[in-house]
């Protein structure tokens, strides 16, 4: 068994985790970073180019914040938006000083976005992590948090799949969870590692969630799994979209998803697509005889949605002492409101929240007494003997999350049906999932998927309106009564309650994500 001790433990090696590790080390902390796969080469960012919300101070930034707040259904926080923009702007300059070339939007000097090659960006961040003196443990998925007798988080424990599935334990003065969101194993690019593990073990330790109803983001990709991001970029940036009768769909993604949800086929036309990209799509068999690319919808859940752990202040502390959070595992409501973080917001959030969480964890670690004994938090799916197959749990979860009729369009009837089925499976997941080695890891992931699905359904049932990406067919309009965020949590029994109502005046907005 591997046992280590450090000031700050970072769980997750994507952009948010890497920035958290660098930030904590810069604050003088010793840092260990563990990743479920390999830090710097896994997760959604590793697949294709990403855009980054990037604006210098000035009127253009003020206008972007104003428009973002309105578009997000007035659930965002302009102060947080300004903080994120300022932090990410500074860190982009830091990336440039490290020698990373950043492509800008040619819209002028006050450009709204910059573009990063995801794989190259992650490789540079891994190098920065190592240069900062951080100890990196690849292929070390975390299973449980450690807490002391006062409930303060003191580290984590997990498995080493590449070393006979032995156990590891890292005791720490503070922990940053940056494990990403949950895409329900839908097949979206790079999301095979995003199974909600961090959400589950944080809530088991007492953390709260927010915005879980805004966890139904879909992308448009071609049939099959080859190069999904190539078509995602095509569908959203270049190509006009058409239904099966040849009528162009306005608004691109939202209209196309609505058409697919209604049983129609949707296609991307290639007339305006660069020749090189068109040839690559043809080589992979994506182009039909009519020179169109058929599209399908794939759920990205909380990865490109909004819901996640609730943070309580500017240092991205969760509601559990000693536990900080960054990136997609966190609710991005302060930044995006009720809509997706697609278009550069999520990338900016990963940078800013990582920097803040790392610095906050380093500061907290200096105040703790690590001599206190710590115990593992009891969790679901960790039984020594397995009595049910985790594939049965995953199959049920996907039945109630992946179809657009379950997540894109919602109603009280469908939500109650899903809740009944998912709740009925929970006792089995809690007490009958488990095993050893790879079976234990799969069991824990299945329990996490089920837990996240339950939180999303309960939250969606509670919000009786349509706002942003949350669409209720039985409540098609937005209501001032619901200009508030929904907190949620609980494992065995899920709870949902509204936060204090938002007091800012609501502005005209497009409530379609």
Overall pLDDT metric = 90
Query: How much strand content do the residues show?
Result: 15-25%
Task: Give the distance, in angstroms, between the N- and C-terminal Cα atoms.
Answer: 47 Å
Instruction: Characterize the main sheet.
Output: 8 strands, mixed
Question: Could you walk me through the main structural features you see in this protein, from its secondary elements to its overall organization?
Answer:
This protein has 513 residues and is α+β, with helices and mostly antiparallel strands. Helix content is 36%, strand content 18%. It contains 15 helices and 19 strands. The protein has helices spanning 15-26, 59-71, 78-97, 118-131, 197-204, 228-238, 253-261, 275-283, 301-304, 333-336, 345-365, 390-399, 404-407, 412-432, 438-462; strands at residues 2-11, 31-34, 49-53, 103-104, 113-117, 135-137, 142-147, 153-160, 166-177, 209-210, 217-221, 241-243, 266-269, 292-300, 308-309, 323-325, 375-376, 486-489, 495-498. Strands 1, 2, 6, 7, 8, 9, 16 and 17 form an 8-stranded mixed sheet that branches. The chain has a 4-stranded antiparallel sheet with strand order 15-10-18-19, covered by helices on one side. Strand 18 (486-489) and strand 19 form a beta hairpin. Helix 2 (59-71) crosses helix 3, helix 5 packs across helix 15 and helix 12 packs parallel to helix 15. The chain is globular and about 70 Å long. Residues 105-110 and 503-513 have low confidence and may be disordered.
């Amino acid at each position: 068994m591997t046992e280590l001790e450090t000031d700050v433990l970072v769980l997750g090696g994507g952009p948010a985790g890497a920035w958290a590790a660098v930030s904590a080390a810069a604050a003088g902390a010793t840092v260990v970073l563990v990743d479920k796969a390999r830090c710097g080469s896994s997760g959604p960012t590793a697949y294709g180019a990403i855009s980054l919300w990037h604006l210098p101070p000035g009127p253009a930034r003020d206008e972007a914040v104003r428009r973002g707040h309105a578009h997000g259904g007035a659930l965002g926080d302009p102060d947080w938006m300004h903080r994120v923009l300022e932090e990410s702007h500074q860190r982009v300059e830091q990336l440039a000083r490290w020698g990373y070339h950043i492509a800008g939007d040619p819209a002028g000097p006050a450009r709204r976005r910059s573009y990063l090659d995801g794989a190259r960006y992650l490789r540079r961040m891994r190098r920065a992590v190592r240069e900062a003196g951080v100890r990196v443990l690849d292929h070390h998925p975390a299973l449980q948090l450690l807490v002391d007798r006062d409930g303060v988080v003191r580290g984590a424990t997990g498995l080493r799949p590449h070393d006979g599935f032995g156990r590891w334990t890292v005791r720490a003065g503070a922990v940053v969870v940056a494990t990403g969101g949950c895409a329900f194993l839908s097949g979206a690019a790079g999301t095979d590692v995003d199974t909600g593990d961090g959400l589950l073990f944080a809530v088991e330790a007492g953390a709260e969630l927010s915005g879980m109803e805004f966890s139904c983001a879909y992308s448009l990709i071609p049939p099959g799994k080859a190069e999904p991001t190539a078509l995602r970029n095509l569908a959203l940036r270049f190509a006009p979209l058409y239904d099966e009768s040849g009528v162009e769909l306005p608004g691109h993604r939202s209209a196309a998803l609505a058409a697919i949800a209604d049983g129609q086929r949707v296609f991307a036309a290639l007339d305006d697509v660069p020749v090189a990209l068109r040839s690559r799509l043809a080589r992979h068999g994506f182009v039909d005889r009519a020179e169109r690319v058929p599209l399908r919808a794939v759920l990205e859940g909380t990865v490109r949605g909004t819901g996640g752990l609730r943070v309580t202040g500017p240092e991205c502390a969760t509601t559990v002492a000693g536990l900080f959070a960054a990136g997609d595992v966190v609710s991005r409501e302060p930044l995006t409101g009720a809509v997706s973080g697609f278009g550069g917001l999520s990338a900016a959030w990963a940078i800013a929240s990582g920097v803040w969480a790392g610095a906050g964890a380093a500061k907290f670690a200096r105040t703790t007494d690590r001599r206190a004994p710590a115990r593992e938090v009891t969790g679901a799916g960790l039984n020594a003997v397995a009595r049910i197959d985790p594939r049965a749990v995953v199959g049920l979860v996907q039945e109630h999350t992946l179809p657009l009729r379950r997540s894109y369009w919602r109603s009280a009837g469908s939500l109650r049906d899903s809740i009944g089925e998912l709740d009925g499976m929970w006792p089995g997941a809690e007490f009958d999932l488990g095993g050893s080695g790879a079976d234990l890891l799969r069991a824990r992931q299945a329990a996490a998927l089920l837990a996240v699905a339950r939180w999303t359904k309960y939250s969606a049932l509670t919000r009786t309106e349509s706002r942003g990406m949350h669409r209720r067919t039985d409540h098609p309009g937005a209501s001032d009564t619901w200009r508030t965020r929904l907190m949620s949590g609980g494992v065995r029994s899920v709870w949902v309650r509204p936060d204090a109502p938002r007091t800012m005046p609501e502005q005209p907005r497009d409530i379609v994500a």
